[in-house]
Fold these 2 entries.
Entry 1:
Amino acid sequence: MLETIFNHRSIRKYKSSPVSDEILDKVLQAGSRASTTGNMQVYSVIITKDEDLRKQLWEAHFKQDMVLQAPVHMTFCADFNRFTKWCKQRKSVPGYGNFLSFFTAAIDALLVSQNVALAAEAHGLGICYLGTATYMADRIVEILELPELVVPVTCIVMGYPDEQPGLTDRLPMNSIKHEEKYKEYLPEDIDMIYKEREESSLTKELLAINKKETLAQIFTDNRYTEKDNIYFSERFIDTIKKQGFFGNS
Amino acid sequence: MLETIFNHRSIRKYKSSPVSDEILDKVLQAGSRASTTGNMQVYSVIITKDEDLRKQLWEAHFKQDMVLQAPVHMTFCADFNRFTKWCKQRKSVPGYGNFLSFFTAAIDALLVSQNVALAAEAHGLGICYLGTATYMADRIVEILELPELVVPVTCIVMGYPDEQPGLTDRLPMNSIKHEEKYKEYLPEDIDMIYKEREESSLTKELLAINKKETLAQIFTDNRYTEKDNIYFSERFIDTIKKQGFFGNS
């Protein structure tokens, strides 16, 4: 268990070998063992292997190579559709078209995704999470024909790794851990937290390539800009609304 | 790995024995190996052991016994505070006070929580997720003194189990799995999906205790009512706004 967790790396190059349905079923079964609110299981997982559909998804995910390359694309959805249909068929009046229910279902879906990721790795597969899932939720809704009360919250690609990347660095553990209450960061804490990362050779390379003075500027000016964040915030909120989760029920 | 996943059950009774800092550190280290957007690690974990604080948290979590009983309470927060402070100290202009950034950070925090849950279980500990974390996010913000750009998205309690509950049932795997695209549920699909659960002796017991005709009614009328959902939706959205995540930056 712990070995799998500590060996995790995102895989961005895949062999073309397919993943058997048997393994996919085991992996998904592991997903379904995650904690779920009130045992409602308000999530769905869509497993896409079809080439044409994966090409459409690749376009949605900013045309990242690995999305075309990996034989399996999984979409983890917050899903109150199935549960709501059940309620309606059982003389009860569901009330899940609201933000709290969306977020509850999103939590369910995300815990499933992490179990799936770890189970896949335990079976020798590689995975990579796609942050573009929320950016392009509206396109994913169209491509995968998601009905009302279903919203994609994350995607992963999966397949047999064709690379062996090193472990990614992490901030010192004390910087993410707070004892008893939240401990606000002082300027010198911030300096200490980011010191190792900022002084790494990787950062020096990135600064040269991007012609920036600080690593933070690469994030704010290139990778995760305010303009993009605002644009995709509105788009994501619109999608959640359109899927019926921002109503008054 | 897989054994831990398949053995997971939520633990609601705990021994009073404390959890050592050494184990907590290992567990948290496992958490930090989860995938994180752009390796930004936009989350924080607050570990609360203090009795008085845990009593306040217990009150926030609808006074569920296990919150008082378990020696450790962990709060997983979407956190763009640390990252934003870093940007500001490094001549860059952060733009993370928006919904997309909140959700990105929430994903980060939730993947960490699932790694932590599994790592804890691999160390012989028991855990239980607290759905009340989003319902009562505003109170948790107050109790744990969370600053701007920090929002709790889930909590777990942790300790040595004082019960051995059986595995919880799950819906048939085909009901949560969709091949290629989303397959909409027909009325007969819904009947089939919920058949086993509805016919179980546990359900019959619940129907008798709650004096309801269908299991769905127990969810819609008692456990997760429309009225509560709407009330707590507004409260949660207000908290996200108050913490600065619904602005235009």
Note: The first helix of chain B runs from residue 2 to 6.
Entry 2:
Amino acid sequence: MDRHIPIRLGMVGGGIGAMIGEVHRIAARLDNSFDLIAGALSSTPEKAEESAAKIGIAPERTYSDFTEMARAEAARTDGIEAVSICTPNHLHFPAAKAFLEQGIHVICDKPMTSTLEQALELGEIARKADALFVLTHNYSAYPQLRLARELVQSGALGPIRLVQVEYAQDWLAEPTESKQADWRTDPARAGAGGSIGDIGTHAFQLARFVSGQRPAQIAADLTSFVPGRRVDDNAHVMMRYASGAKGTLWCSQVAPGTENGLKLRIYGEKAGIEWSHETPETLWFTALGEPARKLRRGGPEGTMIGSRVPAGHPEGYLEGFATLYGEAADAIRAYQAGQAIETLLPGIKDGIEGLRFIDACLRSNAKDAAWVELMP
Amino acid sequence: MDRHIPIRLGMVGGGIGAMIGEVHRIAARLDNSFDLIAGALSSTPEKAEESAAKIGIAPERTYSDFTEMARAEAARTDGIEAVSICTPNHLHFPAAKAFLEQGIHVICDKPMTSTLEQALELGEIARKADALFVLTHNYSAYPQLRLARELVQSGALGPIRLVQVEYAQDWLAEPTESKQADWRTDPARAGAGGSIGDIGTHAFQLARFVSGQRPAQIAADLTSFVPGRRVDDNAHVMMRYASGAKGTLWCSQVAPGTENGLKLRIYGEKAGIEWSHETPETLWFTALGEPARKLRRGGPEGTMIGSRVPAGHPEGYLEGFATLYGEAADAIRAYQAGQAIETLLPGIKDGIEGLRFIDACLRSNAKDAAWVELMP
Amino acid sequence: MDRHIPIRLGMVGGGIGAMIGEVHRIAARLDNSFDLIAGALSSTPEKAEESAAKIGIAPERTYSDFTEMARAEAARTDGIEAVSICTPNHLHFPAAKAFLEQGIHVICDKPMTSTLEQALELGEIARKADALFVLTHNYSAYPQLRLARELVQSGALGPIRLVQVEYAQDWLAEPTESKQADWRTDPARAGAGGSIGDIGTHAFQLARFVSGQRPAQIAADLTSFVPGRRVDDNAHVMMRYASGAKGTLWCSQVAPGTENGLKLRIYGEKAGIEWSHETPETLWFTALGEPARKLRRGGPEGTMIGSRVPAGHPEGYLEGFATLYGEAADAIRAYQAGQAIETLLPGIKDGIEGLRFIDACLRSNAKDAAWVELMP
Amino acid sequence: MDRHIPIRLGMVGGGIGAMIGEVHRIAARLDNSFDLIAGALSSTPEKAEESAAKIGIAPERTYSDFTEMARAEAARTDGIEAVSICTPNHLHFPAAKAFLEQGIHVICDKPMTSTLEQALELGEIARKADALFVLTHNYSAYPQLRLARELVQSGALGPIRLVQVEYAQDWLAEPTESKQADWRTDPARAGAGGSIGDIGTHAFQLARFVSGQRPAQIAADLTSFVPGRRVDDNAHVMMRYASGAKGTLWCSQVAPGTENGLKLRIYGEKAGIEWSHETPETLWFTALGEPARKLRRGGPEGTMIGSRVPAGHPEGYLEGFATLYGEAADAIRAYQAGQAIETLLPGIKDGIEGLRFIDACLRSNAKDAAWVELMP
């Protein structure tokens, strides 16, 4: 039987007010690969229920305790096959453990655990478990970084000499009290690392993923610039790779004007590549002594890995389309309810205007480009 | 009852080999606003069935004739509430007519019809119908173009003087024979306009949407550069707006090196704005005599309309995440089938490496940034 | 005799308060090709004398009447060999005529004359004269535009289809009363064309220079947006080239946020090129179906025409160096006069700091990158 | 007496085949501040004479020994007032000493000397000398870096936290044997530092110049990637500033695809700035929580320090103009010699074309933008 059947998915964390949970949900839905049907979205029962109802999870599949959820779902014949873990860092370990031990596949946010000890223990658990463990280092799925990795592996850069990676933000430049900032600057929930855990690990993974190199030694200078902060908000790290390559890693959450300033530059004996998160669909490739080439997602010498639309449609294209669809759904619901519809959606008038435009172009062109009225 | 219920959606066109159909499907799914449950994805029965099966539409909701589909779905109590029309242009009119007349909401690709006469007739049909009609001029849903429109309306630019819009591509620079190119260069299926219908109407709609201005007169010089082409592949159009503003519209499908080079620049008495599709999350705003300001999606002075992730996560962020999820689904299916899993997905090892990195940073930092081994 | 001897140069116009005169003087001096020794910098004798003294022209070579200057200089054995004409447009014709008829070479700012009749007459005069006539369409001397021309001529673009050129400014967006604006908006001094004469002619020349194509027909829509302005401040022009190529020319002086926004894009059957004045050292070249290549001044596949420094030193490099030299001259003069010297010039302290840096790097490196004090 | 009199200048080094000597000469000439009249351009008498003749230095002011030159020039009443030293590094010290001790002002290339000991000794010599010493750290004269310094000093960034500076090149990525590469990789002539001396000192000076901060401690990891190279060709340096600010300095001569990749980023508590050598006329300024502002040379909130042309004329503008002048000089010399003239210079024909363009625009516009022939 050939029909497409999405995988049954549960979620831990990601209740109302969370940011990354909704990202995981959209990601699970976008390619129709998963069907979210169960969740322990919060450890507070009321909040768990409210959050679940809002996204269409049935009450009987709503939990506030992830251990119970793991047990209950494993016992159902239509139980979840996989679970997404989107909690603050300190809960990654017990939650992942609970589901892996029930043979439920785990998709977990990073960093994997709060401490190295937990990480090693989870490694043992995963080794024995009848389930997969996936860590969402999402940047390594950008098409142009996949391409970058292929270029390195193909030998196009020659032996690697330099790996410069950085991830700079500014959202913690001042003392803040948002939900997001709160747990990320609390060693009990985030782990001992601040910026190095939250974004440094992304940069570190990306450098390894693309370069195919593993650092042997590092020298790290960590700083907490904001008075009273209990974890680092900036790190300068020098790296020596096992291969003889060298590089630096800089991560910061106190650099005003940077957004999610992830940048990766790798230089080999024969060529160099550069990538920046601000223009994620472009990978610069320069062979020594040749002009820089702008490799675009889906373009020539590019890759279609992870591409859903043809080259030249920037990745936000789908989101723009989805916004129209979302607004159409709102309008339809309002229409069905007999409510007034206020919308920016293009409609019949725009369609007529478009045809008027085509018609006027053809009329003008037929008169050697003379002026014509749009509305004749 | 508060629970989220997606709208029941059908689709006409968008079978195997089509491009825009899949875009509509992802868009419908991304925000969980619609549930695609019926389709006439092709007029060839076998192809309609195969296409439907592939995306999970049940056989009893699979049609090859859209008129029959409209009738049948309207008769069901669980029939579709809305339909997406993703066919070549010449079928937009009969399909939209069929569904509107059954009181089913229509979401239709552009240009709305093949001829102005059809457009006006559809206008009448829509006026009388008990259903909405939405035209997917998707670019008008980009957050920074929504912001641009707000800036114009707020008076920040002063009275508008100039509207420069262009949409340049290169995919028809040579005679081509792809499915996509085929119907777009056939007047019988595309309508009399070539580039002006396919992309010129987008540029035209966008100029109107953002500027809030309607051209009164145009002067158009159309060209078919590729020998044997039966429709225009390039258009230069001068525009005079009713308000006294002026501008040009250039669209081309024969400009090597351009991708989907949609650009909009609007200049008023007090300020100017510039937007380019290649960097869709940036809107440049310059008040006369002040430095240019880079307005970023979700950033300060920005807008969150249509934004799903916080500022600084480029719009492809969700797609990267979705790629990971898709690959996780593949790995889980392979695991369940007892197949070998080859994947680039980060997993336990990456998690351990990440914690080793944090641990090594802390150890080095504790020794005044001395070199430490990553693996102690 | 091998020694380098600069050409003896005079200047008409370019007195105190003028902008373009100083540009001509720096240009004449930069390569040591000319020696400016005579001038009629103003028609007001006092201003002519003051201006001449300020730039080191001897009193006996200072004139207020360019006809007299032409006669007097032609009569001297050490008279000027060439003259630069930097006056408002309406004086170009009589001044050029005066010097050409005396056999003195003319380097003249653009547009060449105020009217087409004068231009044709000057053509006759130049044809008969024993002297050269050079028009300073300076943009055609940018290295990357020279390269663009070579690429077109080499056939790398294939037959040309499209020439899109524009030159947008914002300095006349409001009524202004500067010396620069004053004569440029006065038909008596600027000629009948406003923006088309001042900047449109540059765009027009550049399109011809690089494309090697001449328009056969044009359709122009000129506008004076600023109330009371007597000449156009914006022009939209459609062009049809003799070869079958088409294009548009847009020039504007009322587009807020543009500086000297000269842009040229040329598309042929096989490839396209793009150049923008804001990054003059980059020429984008894209062959159909290949990644865009970033051709940099002096770089691979580049050209050294007009390059004074190796690739990678941006063109402002020389100006930065010259600023240091100018400040050094100021400091030396102040020193000689016994005055206090306040300067940002790097000196001995900076030199010692630099060596301390090198020394500290070597000391730290010798200790496996341990921290060392800069000042041991 | 008010007349402008350039300073009498001599030069040591900079003979045929050198690169930086010609840069110094152009810089000295550009603002007419200096008159180059004497030189010891090479220590080989024949080469010294040939080089001097080529640039117009009189035979009696041509030397091959800089000590003799210092003595002889100091003895003349019309002797040089200042000297430019453009030799390889190891000669900076003896040459600077020779001229300073004769009371002749010194303008010296960087690094100041080969060793720290020499630097300190030169400091003593300069202290006692009746002359100024200027070190050409030219980057600190870029207008937008001067502006950056002003912004820091004004407190617009708040207390500085981070200083990230880098200077990456690729010209030594392979073993090379050019004259330029040769002495720069020879410790005897360049000093013990390779990349750190040649470009690291520039980055170091710039960081100090703009930030107003001095590092207290550094930790440096130097590498010679190219086999057999006797000096470093890459350096990673972590810096701790006396103020508590931190940062890194990276310099490299083996990073393929970088040109003269000097970049400076400074982040304070309240705002951040970014500057890149590839677009030297732009300084990015972002106050925390506000959109990035693009500060352009000469533009609003900009500075005119070091600016010779109005905003919007990129810095290469003068060089393009100078190229035209240089070609005009060539054409005039060829004309005088009765030689054939082959040139790209615009002339009478271009002037007539320009007026035809203006005329055609006016004719078309008078007919409501109807098509007109360019040549009626």
Note: Chain C is about 35% helix and 20% strand.
